[in-house]
Amino acid sequence: MASSMAAALAASQAAAAPAPAAPVQAPAEVIPASWAKLVDSEAEIPLRVVQLDGLIVMKIMKHSRDAYPAAVTGILLGLDLDGVMEVSNCFPLPMGREGDEENSTRPASRYQASMLRSLREVHGDDNIVGFYQSTAMGAFLSQSFLDLQASHQKTLRHGGIALVHDVSRTARGNTSLKAFRLTQAFLEAHKTKKFSVQGLIERGLTFNSILEELPVQIHNTPLLDAFLLTLSQPSVSRTSASLYPTGSLSELPPTTQPLAPTYPILNTASTPTLTHNLSLVLDTIDDYNQESSNYAYHQRQIAREKARAETYIAKRKEENAQRLREGLTPLPEEDVSRMFKIPPEPSRLESMLLLGQLDGYAKTLEDVTGASMVKMYAAKAGTGAA
């Protein structure tokens, strides 16, 4: 009896005891679908858009405005993800003395290294994605600009971008921020340093095909959006409140609130901007004519030396033919390139850059004169003139 009870108790305890759990395998690491193509292949995804933080835009605009009319540069920091270049921070570079580019490069490089080290210590963004530069009247093409962007596209992933801010257009109420990269055709020509007429024709290079533009988007944080919303709300000024001493201005219907006068925008007087723009156009045309004259002078030198070499070769052939008729040994052929220093064909890059600057000035002039023409026709219609 006792043995049967013990056996039953042992059986019940064995049944109640939990079975040993099977070994659980750790789940395999799952990469999200949005990150799957970023692994080891991010550099192969072409850039589609440049996304700027709202604070970055304000910093660039302030730096450019404070240094106007001098051009300023700075470094862009951020990250490129899935074809979007996200620019989250920037810092300006110190300005060097005009005409002292060699001595001003070293302090700028030391300052850049110091800033990146400081950002790294505070866990800030320290990944360089390009640079920004200010300009005026739409002309920014220069040799230094192209060299800097070419070095970035050789060293940075996705090549980096060049962000250009036009201060003069922003001053007229149209914020101008454009992102550019060098085209592959220009990079090949820049690598070989061949900007002759034949090289430009073979690659189809003009001032319009040096750069390719990328779309720019401005991204604001929710806190900044809320702040901008407060700025857009109408506020009651003391001047407008004094016009209604018997009641509160906020109690008036929206249609009865006074409006700010808009007649100053019809001012058709000549502005300094228009005069300065025309002056820059004339100066650029003079520089282009000077460059064309230098090119024509080099072409005449090359033609003169080639004519001398051809004359010498023809004379040597005639002498050898005469010696053969007389039964003498012909004279050895000499290296003409050593006897006649034929200068190489000059580069046409400077002329192409001047044409690009002239195109930028002309587009800005078109914008300014277009608005002025509208004002003049509006003023003419308001006065009832025929």
Topology:
Elements: H1 2-16, H2 33-36, E1 49-53, H3 54-67, E2 73-81, E3 84-92, H4 101-121, E4 128-135, H5 143-155, E5 161-166, H6 167-171, E6 177-182, H7 184-192, H8 197-203, E7 211-214, E8 216-219, H9 222-232, H10 238-242, H11 272-325, H12 336-339, H13 349-383
Parallel strand pairs: 1-3, 1-8, 4-5
Antiparallel strand pairs: 2-3, 2-4, 5-6, 6-7
Explain this structure:
Its main location: cytoplasm. One of its GO terms (biological process) is formation of cytoplasmic translation initiation complex. It comes from Dacryopinax primogenitus (strain DJM 731). With 386 residues, the protein is an alpha/beta fold. It folds into 2 domains: 44-222, Cytidine Deaminase, domain 2 (3-Layer(aba) Sandwich), CATH 3.40.140.10; 272-380. It contains 13 helices and 8 strands. The chain has helices spanning 2-16, 33-36, 54-67, 101-121, 143-155, 167-171, 184-192, 197-203, 222-232, 238-242, 272-325, 336-339, 349-383, and strands at 49-53, 73-81, 84-92, 128-135, 161-166, 177-182, 211-214, 216-219. Strands 7-6-5-4-2-3-1-8 form an 8-stranded mixed β-sheet. Helix 11 (272-325) runs antiparallel to helix 13. The protein is elongated.
Largest beta-sheet details: 8 strands, mixed
* CATH architectural category of the largest domain: 3-Layer(aba) Sandwich
- Strand tally: 8
Q: Which CATH first-tier class of the largest domain would you pick?
A: Alpha Beta
Radius of gyration: 36 Å
Helix share, percent = 40-55%
Oligomer: single chain
**What share of residues are in beta strands?**
5-15%
Put simply, the count of helices is 13
Look at the structure and give the mean pLDDT.
Answer: 74
> How many domain modules?
2
List unreliable stretches of 5+ residues.
1-6, 8-31, 36-40, 238-244
Q: What is the CATH third-level topology name of the largest domain?
A: Cytidine Deaminase, domain 2
- Secondary-structure element sequence? HHEHEEHEHEHEHHEEHHHHH
Distance between the termini: 130 Å
Strand order of the largest sheet: 7-6-5-4-2-3-1-8
SSE-based structural type:
alpha/beta
Silhouette: elongated
CATH homologous superfamily of the largest domain, by name?
A: Cytidine Deaminase, domain 2
